Amino acid sequence: MNTAWAQKANPLEVSFKTLPSDLIQGPKVSKIDDLKGKVVLVDFWAAWCEPCKEALPHYNRLYKKYKDKGLVVIGINEDDDLKERDAFLKTHSLEFAIYFDKSKQMVKDFKVVALPSLFVFDKNLKPVALYRGFSDDKPQALEKKIQELLK
């Protein structure tokens, strides 16, 4: 299995303290503390990014399968062309929360250098993995990681 796209996130460099104020769709997270005790995926994406668009339905499937067991998926949209983003969202039924990072503060806080970038947080909101890009084996490897963290 190719796991070259998986990297350990440095807990000292990734700080998950806030969310953008612009919720586009899905369930709103009132405050970050509400996420403690849950496994959290934070995905940075844009509609112009083909690997992002390929990955999102897989994250939605995982969300639907594990949300009742404690998985939260949060999409952070980085689009500049909102019409392209909105057109994509109209044609894809994504159930998890999607926020718009209008100020680009989250992308700076997380030091995102490429899209898609998926951060995985454990139940203590500590980053345990960073996945950049997308490959065919990613959903299976990610599901295994989620199952381990939900135990």
Structure description:
- This protein has 151 residues and is of the alpha/beta class.
- It is 30% helix and 23% strand.
- The protein is built from 4 helices and 7 strands, in the order βββαβαβαββα.
- It has a 7-stranded mixed β-sheet.
Strand arrangement within the widest β-sheet reads 1-7-6-3-4-5-2
* Cα-based radius of gyration, to the nearest Å: 14 Å
On the 0 to 100 scale, the average pLDDT is 91
Order of helices and strands: EEEHEHEHEEH
Helicity, as a percent range: 25-40%
Total count of helical runs of at least 4 residues: 4
Largest sheet, in brief, is:
7 strands, mixed
Number of strands: 7
Kindly, what is the distance between the CA atoms of the first and last residues, rounded to a whole number of angstroms? 23 Å
Low-confidence stretches: 1-5
Q: Please state the overall shape, judged from the principal axes of the Cα atoms.
A: globular
Q: What is the SS-derived class?
A: alpha/beta
How much of the residues is beta strand, in percent? 15-25%
